[in-house]
Specification:
Layout (H helix, E strand, L loop, with lengths): L4 E9 L2 E6 L2 E6 L11 E5 L2 E6 L1 H20 L14
Antiparallel strand pairs: 1-2, 1-4, 2-3, 4-5
Length: about 90
């Protein structure tokens, strides 16, 4: 499964930006989006910024991802492989 993450641009150098989500920081390619500046929010997939978001959208996405992460941590199936959860 692939997942795109909303991240905040904290610095830019050429066609690369440093972006953050919570305590995660990554270097991403920004060449496909025009007019990116420090403080903007972008959707990042596979090391590439693929879409610019407004702050409200980014915060909503972030809340959904945090909820999903918390839900996964509390799931009784956590750590099970797909075949382990099939009915017999």
């Amino acid at each position: 499964m692939c997942l795109a993450i909303p991240m905040k641009v904290v610095s830019i150098k050429g066609e690369t930006a440093t972006v953050e989500f919570g305590d995660i920081s990554r270097e991403v390619n920004i060449q496909f989006i025009n007019n990116i500046k420090k403080g903007d929010y972008v959707i990042v997939h596979a090391g590439v910024a693929i879409e610019k978001l407004d702050k409200k959208e980014a915060e909503e996405w972030g809340q959904v991802l945090l909820f999903a992460s918390d839900f996964r941590k509390s799931s009784p199936h956590r750590g099970m492989r797909k075949k382990d959860t099939k009915r017999k």
